[in-house]
Structure formats: C-alpha cells, structure tokens
Amino acid sequence: MLEKFLKKSSWTDIIISIIFIMFGAFLFIKPEAVVSIISFILGGIALIIGIFRLVDYYSGSRDNNYLLGIAILLIISGIVIVFCSDVILSVFRILIAIWIIYSGIMNLQTTVVWKELHSRLWLLSVILSFLTIIAGIYILINTGAILQTIGLIISVYGIVNIIENVIFMKKIESFK
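^ thats the sequence. predicted structure below, dont judge the formating
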C-alpha cells in the first residue's frame, strides 16, 4: 500500500515537473508575453468576479456591505493586475522561489532516509537537493534577475526533480 502511494506521488511530482519545464521554456523564449498573459488572465478573472459581486449586491437587498466591499476590491485589483504586470512578476517570482526551496528541503529530507538505507545514490541526491535550494534562493533574493534566467532555472528545477523522482522510484522497487 505504501509502495503504491509513493509511486503515485512520484508520478504526480514528475508531471508537475514537466509542467515546470514547459513553463520555464516558454518564459525563457517569450518572457514578456508570458508575464502579460498571466497578468491579463489573473486581472480579468478578478475583474469579472468583482463585476458579478457588484451585480449580486445591486440585485439583492443591498444590506450586505461586505459584498460591495469585496466587489470594489476585486474590480480595483483586477485593473491593477492587468496594467501592472511587474507586480505579478514579483509575486510570481516569490511563490516559485518558495516552492523550489521547499521542494529542495523535502528532497534533502528524503536523502537522509536513503543514507540510512545505505544507498549509493544519496550523495548525488544531496548535491541535487542543495542545487535546487540554491536555485530557489537565487530566484528569491535576486529581484533584478532577467526573466530568461528565471525560466531557465525553473526548467532546470523540473529536470532535477524528475531525476530525483526516478531515482526514488527505482529505490522503492529495490527495497520491496
């Protein structure tokens, strides 16, 4: 049962890593377009939800000021997001960096278990985990990083994560 869960979890991580690789490649090739598209989509969603909330408020009994406040906040946020893609880039960069650092730390914890099981691959996994953590920290602290660098790092993260998951899945089979 645990083996099935671990394999399924590893396959899920591999799929997520493939998505990261594709997104990183798009960010590397067309960075401004990716940021513009993300800003437009997120801003449009916030704007549409805000308009629906405003319609709900005016079509109802108008005694729910909370609904009006949320509607106005969403409409303003949607407009800001559409026209301020730099803000979106900063938030996105921070979220990606936190995810990469977290993933590196989790992979580092896994390597400790591998070392206890006397696996020969634990050192490679430790190195890859530290490289993942360093890449996440680089994205987090370097606000001037060009978008292509971030795209490249995201793609490398995806590749490293796939390698680690394949190694992990092979180790699961060898410990059956």
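The helical segments are 2-29, 31-59, 65-83, 85-116, 122-141, 147-174.
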